[in-house]
Design brief:
Radius of gyration: 23 Å
Number of strands: 14
Structural class: alpha/beta
Distance between the termini: 46 Å
Shape: elongated
Largest sheet: 6 strands, mixed
Strand content: 15-25%
Helix content: 25-40%
Strand order of the largest sheet: 11-12-10-9-13-14
Length: about 350
């Protein structure tokens, strides 16, 4: 029976406001194969446990086997630990990850299972609807509009995994090959670290192009506990490990705060590969979006004052049309009314080969 079961993996910690709707969405799946729900209750102090027990009866009456694990210590062990425990106690050959504050559409398991069977070493995601609808609009557009190629080329951006964790669906065999999740607890970006390891091992990224999850945004979400500086450090190291070795030299697109921060964060060996900073600030029609003042443009270079090297490195600042690819782009997308994107397209470059997005 194990081979034919699909396991929904549900970590729970103080999820009382959302849990009824979440578990109802498990009951409403239209997948016709065998399903089980594996819940791990991570020291909830609200009524989550009672809600889970109530839904256990309804789910098992409808043919969904329910496994409930957990602990009632004073403090939770964290999302990574809870996911690992829920996976360990489950038995399915495919894993469908679900967050307790989200809601699945009825066709989610069926459509993602079809995709996962065809892509056995991939993480399969899907499009999402955000709730409230006007929260994180740019981020939601990014999740839903990435092309199949960009699911692999845009893995270095601040947005994190190109398919978001609450939409992940994969085979147990592949999960075991890559995982488990980091169990460092609060403040550890366990989904990002797993995603990077997945890519290191040659895993693919696939998205079902239907909205299969209502993805909630609220102040209590675990993602808010991860510091931006922690994620920045992981991203820079992953960029240096996976992308920069392919290039003998490169240009940082953005001579402003983010571009200079990236330069300062690189190892000395990577810094030596930076031949120039470039920006679009000398371009008159988009000067409103400039983040480098005129004095810096006139000066014509960025001096890395903290460098131990003598003389201190002076990196030229060029107009983007004068700069040479490949580029690491430290300009946030979807912020300039299309002006930046138009400039980039005008160069007729190939994403992944001639440039990578980092911001």
């Amino acid at each position: 029976m194990r081979h034919h079961t699909r396991s929904i993996i549900l970590p729970v910690h103080n999820a009382e406001p959302w849990l009824d709707e979440c578990l109802r969405s498990v009951l409403q799946q239209d997948f016709e194969g065998t399903m089980e729900l594996s819940v791990f209750n991570d020291a909830s102090k609200d009524k989550s446990g009672a809600i889970i027990e109530k839904w256990r009866v309804k789910l098992e009456d409808s043919g969904v086997h329910v496994i409930i694990g957990g602990h009632d210590s004073l403090s939770p062990r964290g999302v990574g630990y809870s996911k690992n425990q829920a996976v360990a106690q489950s038995s399915g050959s495919y894993l469908c990850f679900l967050d307790s504050d989200d809601v699945m559409m009825p066709q989610r398991v069926r459509l993602q299972h079809q995709a996962a069977v065809q892509h056995p070493s991939s993480i399969v995601g899907c499009r999402v609807r955000r709730d409230p609808p006007n929260s994180t609009e740019r981020y939601t557009r990014w999740i839903n509009q990435l092309t199949p190629e960009q699911l692999l080329t845009q893995v270095f951006t601040a947005n994190g995994p190109t398919v978001i964790m609450p939409t992940w669906f994969c085979s147990r065999a592949w999960f075991s090959h890559v995982g488990p999740f980091d169990e460092g607890g609060q403040g550890v970006p366990e989904d990002l670290l797993f995603f990077y390891e997945h890519l290191r091992k040659g895993g693919g990224v696939v998205r079902v192009d239907q909205s299969l999850l209502l993805y909630r945004y609220h102040p209590r979400a675990a993602t808010h506990s991860v510091l931006e500086t922690t994620i920045w450090t992981h991203r820079v190291r992953f960029l240096e490990e996976q992308a920069l070795p392919r290039w003998a030299a490169f240009t940082i697109w953005n001579a402003g705060k983010q571009g200079r921060r990236l330069y300062r964060s690189l190892t000395a060996a990577s810094q030596r590969k930076v031949v120039a900073f470039c920006d679009f600030c000398a371009c008159p029609q988009v000067v409103a979006f400039c983040d480098v003042d005129e004095n810096k443009i006139r000066k014509g270079f960025y001096c890395h004052e903290d460098s131990q090297e003598r003389p201190k490195p002076r990196i030229p600042i060029l107009h983007f049309r004068a700069a040479r690819p490949p580029f690491v782009i430290c300009v946030k997308l979807d912020l300039t009314g299309g002006a930046f994107e138009d400039n980039l397209r005008s160069l007729h470059l190939q994403e992944g080969q001639d440039f990578l997005h980092f911001s």
